[in-house]
Amino acid sequence: MCRVIRPARPADAPLIALHRYPAGADAADRPVYAAWVAEALERGVYLGFLAVADGGEVVAGAGLILLEWGPTRGDPQPYRARVVNVWTHPDFRRRGLARELVTRCLQAARERGISRVSLGTSEMGRALYEGLGFQASGTELTLRL
Q1: What is the CATH number of the domain that holds 53?
Q2: Of 78, 68, 67, 64, whose CA–CA distance to 119 is shortest?
Q3: What is the pTM of this model?
Q4: What is the pLDDT of residue 55?
C-alpha cells in the first residue's frame, strides 16, 4: 500500500535518474542526469513528487520541469512546463498513483500561473494523460544538432 506522497529532494536525484533511464544500456546517462536533477531541484526549476510505500520504498514518481519560454501570442505567461519521469513500479500499477502524481505536477504549474504544460508519452500512458485533458499536438517539429 502507498503510505505517502512527498516532494522530491536533491538526495532523490539518483533514483529519479533511474526512473528516467531504467535500462542497463542507459546506465552511463544516469549520473549526468542525476546531477542536473539535484541542481534543478535546488533552483526550483524541477519539481518532483514521489509515492512511498509502507516499507519506505519509492514506488512511483513524476516530475515537472519549469521552462522559461517567453510570452507568446495569446499567452502572456513567460513560463511553460513539461511533465517528465512518470514511473510506477510494476507491482503498484493500476492503483491511481501516476494519476495522483501527475495531478500534483499540474497543480504545481497552476499555482505558478503556468497555463501550458506538455509531455511525451508511450502508448501505455496515453489514456492516463488524455483523461487528464492532454491533447496531441501535430505542430511540433524537432531537429537534433
Answers
A1: 3.40.630.30
A2: 64
A3: 0.91
A4: 87
